[in-house]
Amino acid sequence: MLLLSLRSLRRQPARFAASLLATFLGATILMSFASLLDTRVAGAVDPDSAKTLVLMASVVGGWGLVIVLFAVLSTLSLLVSQRAAEMALLKSIGATPAQIGLMVVGEALAVAAVGALAAILPADLGGGLVVHLLHNTGQLAPDVTHRFGAIAICLGFGITLVAAGVAAVLAARRTTRTNARDALLVAATGQRPVPRARIISGVVFLVAGLSCGITTAVALRGGGVETMAVGAQGAIFAAIGFALLAPVLLRAVIAVLAGPLRVLPGVSGYLTERNVRGQLQKMAGAVVPIILFTGISTGTLYMQEIENSAKAMTGAVQTVADRNTETLNLVVVGMLAVFAGIMVINTLVAATTFRRREFGQQRLIGATPPQVLRMVGLEGAVLVFTGVLLGSLAATVTVFPYSVAKLGTFAPDTSIALYLAVVLAAVALTLGSSVGTARRVIRTPAVAAATTRI
Amino acid sequence: MDGPRHAPNSHPTQQAEAVRLVSVRKTYGAADNPVVALNNVTVGLPAGTFTAVMGPSGSGKSTFLHCAAGLDQPTSGRVFIDGAELTGGDETALTKFRRQRVGFVFQQFNLLPTLTALQNVALPLRLAGRRVDLRHCRAVLASVGLAERADHLPAELSGGQQQRVAIARAIAAQPRVIFADEPTGALDTTAARDVLGLLRQSVRQGGQTIVMVTHDPVAASYADAVLFLADGQLVGSLTRPTADAVAQRMARLSDEVARRHQVAVGV
């Protein structure tokens, strides 16, 4: 079975491109920040510098860990679910669940190892950039030099491989638990109930996020680093919670949107509603990176805005150091947001490419290419609406309590332009990658697309 | 060569040709060394008939179907469906031309997995922006024996049932011609017999026109006439075919083609 998995990797490298990209970028971010810990333990580092390095590695690394875990989990689940038919076939010719599990986990680990290996050099450069910025902002003594060593390698490889392994086990278990006939049925319909454990952990994370928010607003008023750390944690936990609950929440959203969608002229609204309802989990997989993108960007950008307002309220002029810290924050947030953004593209391109046959079928029974593209666009709109809605809700768990703690007011007196920019970026990423991919996919003649078995 | 004129039960006003190909040629590959898939095919298929198209592998059966159905454009020659000429245009124009005139039934059942049987049957009408008469769609589903299964998803239906839904979908849109590509290729003998019986019934009773590509002499025996293709050319036809007669003709044809190829390469 392990031989089979290595063979399928060699034969169909394109299939694994999405997982490889996710693990590569994820490992890059993880190792960039983990290398700050290498820098810390490498030699004589003064206490202030040491504190900066550890704080930076743990706070930013925390967000990084979350989105990397989710990215790896969601792309690997996508990969496994796209191969549901192949696994059902293996099962029907006599593969045991353990054999299939071994094959899927073997593939995932191989992909993760290649991704992490490729990430070493970029992560070394990324860590160096962060240290350079810390030097510039005076938060790190000039004599501290960046090191990339065992901690970065261990954490980077360890987390990436564990995340990939866990994702593969979870995804494979979903396929192998069902019997052979049901596996074929699930492969055809893509419908299975949302596991209870997923719902419970989603609720737990939401509650944890809310309590972080309440703690920030009530107990940490005017505090320093802890306020920022706990405050930021609120949005992180809430975003994880929403991501876990995405299939359930998407079902609620589509139930509300069903009316407006049916009123739309033409057949696209009708098909969109049926497709989202009929493939909730696949669609929810595409919503997750949008939630994370919106949550991270909105949460951290507005924390910085509130920080600036708080400074302005006390009458203090922003010092060079403050401005540098702001730059540093924005660079770090930028890295994470870019990663989440790439995951939005990655997931949607992979998912849309896989629909080649479906688009071919629709065209054979009379859908024109513009009709197919309108349907894909509408689906994208539903996904981005849901993702932005949930991501924004997650961000409020950080933004409003932080505003109460720092400014003493619920609604910060900041511009809405930043938020609108985040939403616009999410919309552009989602529609650009889904409609763009669909446009490319439907260039295949309809009859060829409909009769191939991917 | 002219195609079969024989149309036992069709109404006199339906004697017009549903499909006509005039000197259709289709080549693939480089201009200096083209592969000829269809070589100067001229044929007319009367409305209200059930025609099977047969030939050895590589004879151009699929290309014939794709060109006649407007899925692919011939390199030269003209194609008429229900008297209207298929002219070049973009994919949108071609789709609109097809959906007014043509229905398809393929080997793989090609139902959309998220739609129920009934919704699948109604979809071509919705796509064409036509008023959807669900009673009519239900009646068509009932006529293929699936009244009870209207609200099931494709994954909950057997292969034979899925193919019957696909036939109902093609019939419900009332196209001028239904093109079927190995419609029984993935079915067992009993399900295949049901499906072929349904196709023949829609011709005899509904006046439907059907063109079916198949490699199975038994399937071909359900048709009013069989056209034989070899090396991209029409090489014969058989009216009121029996499975035995078709099988014999196919065996002869395969031998001839093999001999011709041996001569061509100088063996």
TrEMBL record, chain A:
Key words, A-Z: Cell membrane, Membrane, Transmembrane, Transmembrane helix
Top-level division of the source organism's lineage: Bacteria
Record GO cellular component, one term: plasma membrane
Membrane topology note: Multi-pass membrane protein
Domain ABC3 transporter permease C-terminal: 64-179, 331-445
GO molecular function: transmembrane transporter activity
Coiled-coil parts of chain: none
Annotated compartments: Cell membrane
Membership in a protein family: Belongs to the ABC-4 integral membrane protein family.
Name of the protein described by the UniProt record: ABC transport system permease protein
TrEMBL record, chain B:
GO CC terms of this entry: membrane protein complex; plasma membrane
InterPro entries on file: AAA+_ATPase, ABC_transporter-like_ATP-bd, ABC_transporter-like_CS, ABC_transpr_LolD-like, MacB-like_ATP-bd, P-loop_NTPase
Entries under CDD domains matching the protein: ABC_MJ0796_LolCDE_FtsE
Alphabetized GO MF terms: ATP binding; ATP hydrolysis activity; transmembrane transporter activity
Superkingdom of the source species: Bacteria
Positions of the ABC transporter domain: 19-256
Official protein name in the record: ABC transport system ATP-binding protein
